[in-house]
Structure formats: structure tokens, C-alpha cells
Amino acid sequence: MEIIKVGLAGNPNVGKTTLFNNLTGMHHHVGNWPGKTVEKAEGHLDFKDYKLDIIDLPGNYALSAYSIEEIISRDFIVDESSDVIVNIVDATNLERNLYLTTQMMELGANLIIALNMNKFAKKKDYDINIKELSDLLGVPVVEIEAIDDTGKEKLLETIEKAANDPINSSKKLVYGNELKEHISELRGVIEKDENLMEASSSWTAIKLLENDKIITEKVKESPIFKEIFVELDKVEKHLKDVFNETPEEIIANYRYAFIEGLLKESVKKPVFEKPSFTEKLDKYVTNKILGIPIFLVIMWLVFQITFTVGAPFQELIDGGFTWLGEIISATLGETVLSSFIVDGLIGGVGGVLTFIPVIVLMFLMISILEDSGYLARAAFVMDKVMHKLVGLHGKSFIPMILGFGCGVPAIMATRTMEHERDRILTMLIVPFMSCTARLPVYALFVAAFFTSYQGEIVFSLYILGIIVAIIVAAILKKSLFKGITSPFVMELPSYKLPSLKGVLIHTWEKSLGFIRKAGTIILAAAIIVWILSSLPIGVDYGSQESVIGQIGTVASPIFEPLGFGDWQPSVALLFGIVAKEIVVGTFSSLFGVAEDGAGIATATEGGAGIATAVQGLFTPLTAYVFMVFVLLYVPCFAALGTIKQETNSWKWPLIMVAVTTVTAYIVSFIIYHGGLLLGFV
Ligand SMILES: Nc1nc2c(ncn2[C@@H]2O[C@H](COP(=O)(O)OP(=O)(O)OP(=O)(O)O)[C@@H](O)[C@H]2O)c(=O)[nH]1
Ligand SMILES: [Mg+2]
Questions:
Q1: ipTM of the prediction
Q2: Where does the chain cross the membrane (predicted)?
């Protein structure tokens, strides 16, 4: 079977991954905000006698190399030998989208244009003459709807044809005689070195004129680099004399002029565009005064829904585990095996699994925020605050909100940031955002102590996370990360009705990740906790004389000043370093079924078992402080590992550990003593 290698390229948020998923049957991350895909992904599809290798790329606006994900795409388009590049273009935004197209044409890439979002363009009364557009570009144009199968067959046929009969897409690109003449002079010199001919010489010439760092470095390695730079200088001087502009500006102007001419011939737009739904809604949502209150209300709703809808399901699962534990205890009697299954496994792992409904709902809510387009608005609204207070731009707010789901993808999402310094700083504050792993801890404690204000208490923790993140970022920006942040225009995609299938798949996969975690790390920790609670032989399970009790007793003075100096919270925090769910796992295996026969925590009932046990250890004030500490202290191993991988050094994860520990301690201390002064207990 012959293989055809197809790259999917285009601006951010135009539907590349949607098309990729549709073609390959895979489920990669789709959402309505620019910059989701940060790494290239590969999938396959059989078509007739061919095997298509499809590569999904991060979106980019130009083939210049700024941020990491842009470099990934550019390297693929420029250096890898793909057979066909499918350029996905948003029909509602042709001017901007075609800017990247012109640059791929400069490369002479074997291009196909897949025109997406046609329904939205029709709604706006755009009349696009596909044949004309294709003729003028000299590139096939296919209308598709990435979300369903519209145009899919035609696209595949076109890919097959293009692979067998490649075109040079640079042919119809015209940049005016003056520029063309000088580019060809420069090309003449470049072409003398065979090694520089991997990409087309006109592209290399253009990139040199644009002062592109990577290409300039590459050319410096050529034996004839002096000759090339002498010519480059000459051309640059000449262009400056003629146009009184930098070569970069001149080239950009020509690209836009080409696009303008093209669209004049092939697209008819209504004289007055009626305000779209998005524009109408954004009047309120991104309003200067209303923006932040609306953001807060939406977040509050998210937590309310998560908790109120989640609670009955949670009780159901909890009941199931309790029943299972009782049956096992009754069948096996008081044996080591029964203690292992009931305290160790059902307590440690089951105690965490009861929170699945809450966690699934949280991921569902975040998926809806992402897919509707609200996430980008939240970042836009926070941009001013972030800029003024922290010196970071709103772009870093997107990874922060994703951090409400899980820190690992959130840390990866920082790749879209241009400056390494801003990127690392954002990574360091993402773990202050309250991820779903903290939810079991909150659920347990609010049920035991704050039955009437569950939603409000949890909401306050989420907001505290954001505030602490902003304060820590501001301090770090003034010390470790000095420097100005370049301004950035936040792109606001049109609102879209979230696709049910997309949202469900997204949620399902995230939830599966949680279940997998329960079966691996949390299980392993549960077994260790059980062993340590049962040793030395003959000791009462989970008593202070057990190994775990002794460890806790040694560690507990550290937490005394924060109000929870008992040994059990200390070991729970210690084990929770691995993953925060283990904090609850540890409690539930220490106070599990066998202890009082009352069952594992029924977090929503606030009565039996674990809840009673924690009521004996905490007061409402110390319970709140404990939740704050869990929120802010050391991120889980997975998050630290991701920071190491993304920064390529252990330095940052270690700094992270120090920053979070100190912050958690200080903030908890202030809240505890402040609370005491205010008369709380
Ligand atoms: N209605 C409709 N929505 C679409 C279509 N194609 C994509 N979308 C939506 O557009 C948004 C962006 O889609 P993605 O596939 O994630 O875009 P992308 O180009 O991969 O974006 P990045 O990875 O950020 O560069 C999502 O909300 C999709 O559901 C389509 O054909 N019709
Ligand atoms: Mg994508």
C-alpha cells in the first residue's frame, strides 16, 4: 500500500484537530480557543489503495518562529517531506487566514485549501466563489465541515490527486516587480550552495530579508555566506531607499496586497455586516464593568452544579462500597485479609473513587466552558488585571483555568507563550489553581463541617487559589523574573454551541485518566498506608503505635502552628505529596469500615465514619485551614514531572516545591491566626 503523508496546517482554532479526529477516528483535544494543540499528532486512514498518514499540527499565524508550538509546525512544514499539506482555512476570516497560506505558497508547498466553517460564513452573507479562488491561487480549494462528513470524500480525492500530481503553489503568488527582482538577485546567490536548496531559494531569500533568526543561522554555516550577506545588505539598502520601510514591512504589505486583490475577485461581502450573536453577547461578557462579575458568577455556577448534581451519585457509590465492605467483613471475619481488602483497598481506593461523579462533572463543566468560547473571554477579561497587577498577560489565564481540571495539560498549554520567562512563571503558578484532585478533600471537609455553605466554601477556595497565584506571580515577577511583558492581542473566537459528542468524549477521557490513577498510584499508596498502619505486628490497626502513627507523630509539630497538630492530618499530607486524592485515601483507610462499622465517608451526609472521625480532629476553622494547605502545598508528582519535562531541568520543579511549601505555610498560618483573632473556632 502506498503511503501519502498529509500535514494539516492553518491558523489556531480553525478546526484542524476536528478534521484530524474526523479523518482518523481519534479523539484529540478540541475546544473553542486558540492554541489547544501544542504538539504534532499522527493518525492514519485507509483510502482506496493508499494509506494516509495524517499529521495534526499546532495552529500558527505565520511561518516565523516565536513560540514553541509555532516552531513545531514550521519545522514540519518547512523541513519534513510531507506529500501534501492541507491548509484549513476559516471561511469567516479569510484575510487573516490567507496570510499563512501566502507563506506556504512562498515555500512552493504542495497545498490544498480546505475551507471550513462555511455555514458561519453563509450566515454572515459571505458569497465565496470557490472556483475563482482556486484559479487565482493556483491551488485546489475544497469546501468542508470538519465537524461532520461534508466535503470529506472530495477532500480525500483531492489529496490523492495532489499526491500523484504535485503542484508548485508559488507560481501564482505575485509580490510586485520591484520586490520580485531583488528577491531573484538574492536567489541567484543562494542557489550557488546546494546545501541551502532544501527549501526553495525564494523562501530562504524572503526569510533572510525578514531577518529570521533560524534561517540566518543556517545560512551562516554556508561556505558562501559572506557573498550572500553582501548581496542581502545591498538589497536591504535598496529596498529601504525605494520604499522607506523595512524589508519585513514591505513583504508583509505585499502579502496583504495579494490577499486583498484575491478576495476582491472571489468574495462578495454585504456592505453592512449585521452584528453577529457573538458581537451582541460580547457587549456584556467582555464589558469593562460587567466582565469580572460575570466571570465570578459563571465560576460559582460551575461549582454549584458540580456539587449539587454530583452529591446523590456520590452517595450511591459510597453506599455500594459500604455494602461491599460489610459483606466482606462478615464473610471473612476479623482477619488480615479482610482488613487488607476493607481498610486498605476499599478504604484507600474506594474512598477516592466515590468522588468520581464530582470529578466527572467538573471536567464536563470545563469542557463546556472551553468549547463554547467562554474560556478565551475569561482570559480577555482578566488580561487587564493580570497586566496591571502581575505584569503577565491574559494569555496565562487560559492555562490557569485549565488548571481547574488538571495541572498537567495546563502546564503543557503554556507552550503558546512567546517568552520563556513568562512561560515558566505561568507554569509555576498553575499548580495554585485548584485541580480536581483537591475536590475529594473539599467534599469530605465541607460535608463534615459546612453543610449549609458547601458551594460557598469551595468557591472561596478556588478564588483563594487564583488570588494567591496572582500575588505569588507578582512577587516572582519583581524578583526572579524581572522584565517587561510584550503586549498581546487576545483573540476572541465566535461563540459556538458546544458539540455534545466532543464534550462527552473530552470528559470521558479525562475521567478515565482519573480512574487509571486510582488503579495505579492511589492503589499503590493505599497498600503502603495499609502496611504501615498494620505494622508492627500485633498493633491496633491505624493506631498511634503503628508505624504510620509514629511517622505522623514525628511530623505533627510542624503543623501545630496551623491548628492541626494531630498525627493523622500530618501523615495524610505527607502521602498527599504523591497525589492529592491520597489525602482522603489515607483518612479513609485510617478510619474505614472496620473501625466502627459505619462505612466510608459519606461526604454529603456529614454523619458516619470518616466524617465523624475528622470532626474529632478538626474544628471548622482548622478544617478550612487544612483545605487551604492542601490547595496550596506541593503539587503532585505528575505536575512536577511535567514541569521538569517542559523546562528540561530539575531547577524549576525544585523551586516550585520551595515556593508552594512556603506559600502554603504562610497563607494557612495567616488564615488560622486571623480566624482566631476574629473569634472563629
Ligand atoms: N460548527 C462547526 N464548528 C467547528 C467546525 N470545525 C471546528 N469547529 C469548532 O471550532 C473549534 C476549534 O476546533 P479545533 O479543531 O480545536 O481547532 P484547531 O485548528 O485544532 O485549533 P488549535 O489546536 O488551537 O490550533 C471547536 O470548538 C470546534 O468544535 C465545523 O466544521 N463546524
Ligand atoms: Mg488543534
A1: 0.98
A2: 289-309, 321-342, 349-369, 389-412, 424-451, 457-476, 518-539, 621-640, 652-672
Q: Which of 80-94, 199-213, 275-289 has the highest mean pLDDT?
A: 80-94
Say whether both 29 and 80 belong to one domain: yes
The whole-angstrom separation of Cα 656 and Cα 644 is: 10
- Judge whether 503 is annotated as a binding position: no
128 domain residue, yes or no: yes
The type of residue at 673 is H
Closest approach atom of ligand 1 to CA 35: 24
Evaluate whether residue 516 is within a structural domain: no
Asked if 198 contacts 49 with a C-beta cutoff of 8 angstroms, the reply is no
- Closest CA relative to residue 404, chosen from 378, 430, 372: 430
Question: b/e per residue, 98-133, with b = 16+ CB within 10 A?
Answer: bbbbbbbbbbbbbbbbbbbbbebbeeeebebebeeb
Strands 50-56 and 41-47, bridge-based pairing: antiparallel
Alpha carbon 56 to chain centroid distance?
16
CA 65 to CA 75: how far, in whole Å?
A: 9
Predicted local distance difference test score (pLDDT) of residue 592: 64
CA neighbours closer than 13 Å in the CB half-sphere of residue 428: 30
Candidate from 496, 497, 501 with most ligand 1 atoms within 8 A of CB, to mutate: 496
The domain boundary, picked from 164, 192, 211, lies at: 164
Residue 134 Cα to ligand 1 middle (Å) = 23
Q: Which residues line ligand 1 (CB under 6 A)?
A: 12-18, 30-32, 34-37, 58-59, 116-117, 145-147, 371, 496, 499, 502
Domain range for 298: 292-480+523-677
For the domain that residue 250 is a member of, what is the CATH number? 1.10.287.1770
Instruction: Tell me the C-alpha distance between 97 and 86, whole Å.
Output: 13
Element (H, E) at 176: none
Instruction: Find the 15 Cα to ligand 1 centroid distance in Å.
Output: 3
Is residue 282 included in any domain, yes or no?
no
Distance separating alpha carbons of residues 592 and 568, to the nearest angstrom:
13
User: Are 473 and 335 part of one and the same domain?
Assistant: yes
191 marked among binding-site residues = no
Q: Which of 11, 13, 33, 67 to mutate to test the pocket of ligand 1 (most atoms within 8 A of CB)?
A: 13
Most confident of 37-41, 129-133, 362-366, 445-449: 129-133
Ligand 1 atom nearest 118 alpha carbon = 31
